[in-house]
Design goal:
Length: about 375
Amino acid sequence: MSSCTTASGPSPIADVGPQSLCAREPRVPADRLVAEMVPPPRFDSVRFDTYIPDPNQPSQTEAVRVLSGFAAGLGGAHASGAGKRRWFQKKPAAPTGPRGVYLDGGYGVGKTHLLASLWHATPAAPEQKAFGTFVELTNLVGALGFQETVRTLSGHRLLCIDEFELDDPGDTVLVSSLLAKLVEQGVALAATSNTLPGKLGEGRFAATDFMREIQGLSAHFKALRIDGQDYRHRGLPEAPAPYSDEQVTKAAYATDGASLDDFPHLLAHLAKVHPSRYGALTDGLTAVCLTDVTPVPDQSTALRLVVLADRLYDREVPVLASGVPFDKLFSEDMLNGGYRKKYFRAISRLTALARDAKGLVDG
């Protein structure tokens, strides 16, 4: 058994013991990064008519109306006329006004559901639409290079960016430049975040250049505010309390396709794997079992854990854990700092996955 997994516990129940995330070192080719820019499995079947607006939040109903119209307006030829211009025709003028929609709202109000619904509703072939998180987009640029990313995405009808958050000025300049190039090519944009475009980065950096780049980005989007409570806590039971090491280990051995890791060792392993590979790290898993969950020791580790939580949530992989509850993962300083929105999102998603894992343990 890997040194990352819990060495103690009952004898194996299944013929094959649990896997270890720490034993995995995935290599992801660039073409896979492009091919996988579609809504994650959790959102394969979502549509506008499966989104249930909160009757007390009219902004949710309005968002469905606006996005449905936006999708319908993307039918027909590519906005730039790409692939249909004759050699003697002039390059079309850049679109005027906002060329995208920006969904702003708190955690769990259904922003990703709506963004994925927009992707599904847009009348274009899947290869003409791209969907990915902000981190996945920056990873794509890192894998392909800036110019190749522009070339690859410029023929798309729509680019959807989930969890649009700017963590450093370098990413700000990179994404601002990329989106400006794509808008020039007629690519429509849609994004989600937890802050308005003009407020991104507030409380993290005070550099004048950084804020100027943010203002440039905000001009590309029409902002749609979506109010409401986190749906994961609307009428749902509280997340189960952590289990014992023995319960988690027993469940890991009894569940085909589960992984079993000691949490501190897993955190150390994440530092050795690029976040662009965290999705591949979880390939084929039916459950993630973790023993000795403790508060994360520093911000770099915390941010890596956020990315892993996003990938697990996208893939609907239940998480069974012992140790501290997930709402104790991040220190008060972290929860009050510049990355607080990421940490609260991770807590919300891990809580939902912990609830999904309850059935893995015998009553």
